[in-house]
Specification:
Order of helices and strands: HHHEEEEHEHHHHEHE
Number of domains: 1
Number of strands: 7
CATH topology: Rossmann fold
Structural class: alpha/beta
Helix content: 40-55%
Distance between the termini: 40 Å
CATH class: Alpha Beta
Strand content: 15-25%
CATH architecture: 3-Layer(aba) Sandwich
Largest sheet: 7 strands, mixed
Shape: globular
Radius of gyration: 18 Å
C-alpha cells in the first residue's frame, strides 16, 4: 500500500495514475465490494445508533466509523459513481483530501449523493486544500510555513526539486491527481446547490460536533493541514 502511494506521488501522467488506481481498486473490489460490501454495511448500520462514514479513507481508518475507499478500508467505494449505500442512513460523513481529486461534474454529483445518504440533520465534513492558502504559499505570505520550507516538504514528498515559486505552485496543483482546487466561497456554493444548509468553516481538528473533532491526519505533521487546508461542515436540513 505504501509503495503504491509513493508511486502515485511521482506519477504526473493522469492516465498512468488512473491505471494504477484501477488496478489496485480491482483487487480491493474482489474482497470488499458488492456482496461483501452489502453485508458489512448492513451489519454496521444495524449495530450502530449513530452511523458515521469516512470516504476516501485509504489506510487511515477511524475506529467506530465505516471506512470506505477505492483501494483499501472496510468497504470498496468508488465515489466517481453512484454511491451504493442506503438513503438517510448516516449521521456523519467525513472526507479528507478527496474532493479535489474529482472533476467538477463528478464532485457535484458526489455532494448530491452524500446529501442523500445522510439522515435529516446529519452533517458532512470535508477537508480539502484551500486555494487561497496555496496562493499564499506561492507568494510567501502563508502564516504557517515559509515558501522555502514548503518547497523542502514537497521535495521530500515527491522526490523532485522545487527551486522556484512556479515549481511549487504547479506541482501542488498537478501532482497526486489533483483536478480542481476550491476556495471557501466556491465549495460553500456547491454544497448549498447540492441541498445542504448551514455551511460553516472550522479549523483542522475542531468542530462543534464531538464526532467530527480530531479527524484530520493528512500529511506528515499537523502543520500540513494548517498550512494547506480548509474544513467545511454542512448539514442536511431536517
Amino acid at each position: 500500500m505504501n509503495g503504491l502511494v509513493a508511486r502515485l506521488k511521482r506519477t504526473e501522467n493522469p492516465s498512468l495514475r488512473h491505471l494504477l488506481l484501477r488496478a489496485r481498486g480491482s483487487a480491493h473490489y474482489l474482497t470488499r465490494g458488492h456482496v461483501v460490501r452489502r453485508r458489512v454495511v448492513a451489519a454496521y448500520l444495524e449495530a450502530t445508533p449513530d452511523p458515521r462514514l469516512q470516504i476516501g479513507a485509504g489506510p487511515l481508518s477511524i475506529p467506530g466509523w465505516l471506512n470506505s475507499d477505492l483501494i483499501a478500508a472496510d468497504i470498496y467505494l468508488d465515489v466517481s459513481r453512484t454511491v451504493p449505500l442506503p438513503s438517510a442512513s448516516f449521521s456523519y460523513v467525513f472526507g479528507e483530501h478527496l474532493i479535489e481529486h474529482l472533476s467538477e461534474p463528478t464532485a457535484e454529483s458526489l455532494l448530491r449523493e452524500l446529501h442523500r445518504i445522510l439522515r435529516p440533520g446529519g452533517v458532512l465534513r470535508l477537508t480539502t486544500p484551500d486555494l487561497q492558502k496555496i496562493i499564499a504559499i506561492y507568494e510567501d505570505r502563508n502564516p504557517v510555513v515559509s515558501r522555502a520550507d514548503y518547497a523542502l516538504y514537497l521535495d521530500e514528498e515527491t522526490g523532485k526539486t522545487h527551486e522556484r515559486p512556479a515549481q511549487v505552485l504547479n506541482d501542488f496543483l498537478r501532482l497526486w491527481g489533483h483536478r480542481y482546487m476550491y476556495d471557501e466561497e466556491d465549495l460553500s456554493a456547491r454544497l448549498l446547490a447540492a441541498g445542504f444548509a448551514d455551511v460553516v468553516r472550522c479549523e483542522p481538528g475542531q468542530s462543534d460536533h464531538e464526532a467530527l473533532r480530531h479527524l484530520e491526519r493528512h500529511g506528515v505533521a499537523e502543520w500540513v493541514n494548517q498550512a494547506e487546508a480548509m474544513c467545511l461542515e454542512a448539514r442536511r436540513p431536517a
